[in-house]
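Task: encode each sequence below as structure tokens.

Item 1
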Amino acid sequence: MSTSRFFRVPLGEIGYVRAIVEGYDGLAVVRAPDAKRGEIEWLIGEGLEEEADAVVRRLERECGLIEIARPIDWPAC
């Protein structure tokens, strides 16, 4: 079972974050149902939580990624 984490990121950085995260084979899939909001979800592969944490820390510094709670109006998969 995968783990979901939610983030806010500057609008211009969504593509960069997606490319970095999905560049790690199997690490996570990035969802952005409404890119105008700057909110994304990572569906993290099983057993890859520590690696995902390392990528989160890197992206916090590089592009202002901020972890948030699941938005109330977030669409279901």
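Item 2
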Amino acid sequence: MPGLMWLGDAPYAGSWPFCLTFVRGAAGEQVLAAFGAGPVPDAGIMPRSAPAAAQSGLPLLLLRPAGDWLAALEQHIPPRGVRPDVLRRVSVAAEAVSIYQDIGKQNHEFAHAADGEVISAVTTSVPARWWGSDPDRLRPLAHELGMPNGPSADTDLTPLQALLALAEGVFGLSLDQADLDRPWRAARLQPGPADRAPGAPPGEWPGEPPRAAAGAAAAGAAAAGAAAAGAAAGTGLVDARPVAAHVQRLLAAGLTPADIGARAGMTPVGLDRLLRGVMPQVPAATAQRLLAIEVP
């Protein structure tokens, strides 16, 4: 599978206000309920025809499997997939990662949630806005990838590409480009409260504390909340160094990167970043799968 980076290079990407939310551990019905989606109107709609299909009615939420995740695609403004209330609902006893391309002000958004809690989220405004129970969890890697202020001397990635690289490299997320030409399960998003609080700056949503309060709360809750979130089985992030060392032993024993990636559900790009030390942390479930591979 090709990962996600191709989304930042697709010819139509600059005019496509997409929001992709990947959910693992939740059934499709939980995802629909979390987003406020109504009954499924069609057996399947192709993403490139979805905007036209929604013009005469409510916006659409499209669903399809993506490896061991479920991908939810929105192509309207503003999307629901990066709202804290939606992320908390969709990640109950599950995990969610969301990437939104803002084609207007380029204030792209990324969020990681697990067990009903938004752990780390960012908006690529200048300066970047980080929030969540542990906002610094992904910040060092994001900075290495060119965040918060766009391409740096060490990378030529745009802010959107940095977010896509973060989602692909840390969480192993991938979506086949051919999926955009295949039918997705479609449901209509029902009317609800305003998507953004009136006058709220970019990145602030209903259910999210004001910026100042959020920063203070995060600082106070990080020590207690981050440990609990990171220790939850199959969710959170763990130190990548012992995992990378085990992968090196597997390679030295004769296993190929393709074989290791297939067993662990990781893309070649993700494995490469793990081995180069670019990923300081990896999802606990991915670490468990890699460490479960025995050295021949």
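Check on item 2: Residues 194-235 have pLDDT under 50 and may be disordered. DSSP finds ten helices and eleven strands in the chain.
End of task.
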